[in-house]
Amino acid sequence: MIDHLPLPPRCSVLIVGAGIQGLSLAFSLAERGVRDILVLDAGYWQGGASGRNGTLIRGAFSSSEWTHFFAHSNRLWLGLSRRLGENVMYSRRGYSMIGERDSTAELLQRTREVHRECGIDSQLLDPAQLRHVLPALAHERVSAALHLPDSGVAPHHAAMYAFRKACERLGVRIEYRTRVDAVDHSAGRVSGVRVGQQRIQADTVVLAGGADSNALAQMAGVPLEGYPMRLEAMALEPTRPLIGPAVALLDRLCYMHQTARGEVVGGAEVAERPQDSLAADVPVMAATARAYLEMFPQLGQARILRQWAGLVHISPDFGPMLGAHPRVPGLFISAGWCYGHAGAPAAGDLLARAIVEGVVDERMQPFAVDRFERGCPVVEPGIVLSHFE
Ligand SMILES: Cc1cc2nc3c(=O)[nH]c(=O)nc-3n(C[C@H](O)[C@H](O)[C@H](O)COP(=O)(O)OP(=O)(O)OC[C@H]3O[C@@H](n4cnc5c(N)ncnc54)[C@H](O)[C@@H]3O)c2cc1C
């Protein structure tokens, strides 16, 4: 712990983790009138995955469950600057899902149907339309392209700053460099946390610890599925505008977008043994570079400018684990986030509603914390991730 004002002996809601999940929840709670919210983070400002991501906001996926949830989040993103009173710099540049295999083309056709049923605007692009939307793409490799005009990107630094400022304006107290060491129970429910020797009582404790979610759940005495996983990204040196929308190359587990500065930012996933290193990994960079080069040959001229990695928590079905813990009153979880930047506004909104009103919204219900023990995973085939076998 570093110098800061003494921590209070009690609060109403204590959130462990001040990444975008913890901050979005704190804001949504404060907006609903909850006072005495305390957010504690062991690390530094934006030190977790929330300061290290690819910044893509995908407004829909391939399953109806993910699509309903992320479409709600995308709608909230569109109005977030006004709500927070700070510019989150959302750029609604669209998002194209690209398939190369015939089986992926079929998936994208089914995905279009799901979007239609969910009321989401998406379009299967014919070759002429694809050339218009993504002129630099190696079209001869593409079997199908599904375009979502309402999705986009929002830089994580702008979003994190906006959430933090808005929280502070509403009186939320946020402390970094403050590790929670234990979760206390009393009379069969969660009663607070300990920071070193200090006890902080709380009516509600929310674990939003990102990659440390398993360790935190263990502190709270509950099992939690999933494991920490490293994701890596890189930026290419600026080039002239080549890529308009955000792009997912589904068959290559690869995503990218081009920033306003002209840098192409993104990554490709290579199944790695779970690890906690944030060091550069040549095989991952090579796989990303190969995917870029084969699909956007003009990027062959650009050099890699920088690389970084971050750790996320991955659940068995890649979906978030969100809601009240079914057996420990007072304990709530926000974990399993591999698309937690995109999902943060909806997660904050729906989890705050569950905490304040006790209502489990139907968009959140499929992602219940105990779905694996009930045998109810959510199947989502349209993501660019794979489990380590
Ligand atoms: C390279 C990369 C690319 C990505 N690209 C995208 C993308 O394009 N779109 C997208 O939507 N998502 C993306 N993600 C995922 C996204 O960044 C995460 O899902 C999201 O940031 C998770 O937010 P969080 O608040 O749960 O976790 P974090 O931001 O990791 O925050 C968790 C916090 O909990 C704190 N903590 C842990 N243990 C304790 C403790 N004992 N006491 C106190 N504090 C504790 C940590 O210090 C940490 O700050 C990407 C991630 C990476 C790494």
From TrEMBL:
It comes from Pseudomonas panipatensis. GO terms for cellular component: cytoplasm. The keyword Oxidoreductase applies. InterPro entries: FAD-dep_OxRdtase (IPR006076), FAD/NAD-bd_sf (IPR036188). Keywords: Oxidoreductase. This is Sarcosine oxidase subunit beta. Residues 13-353 form the FAD dependent oxidoreductase domain. It comes from the Bacteria. Pfam families: DAO. GO terms for molecular function: oxidoreductase activity.
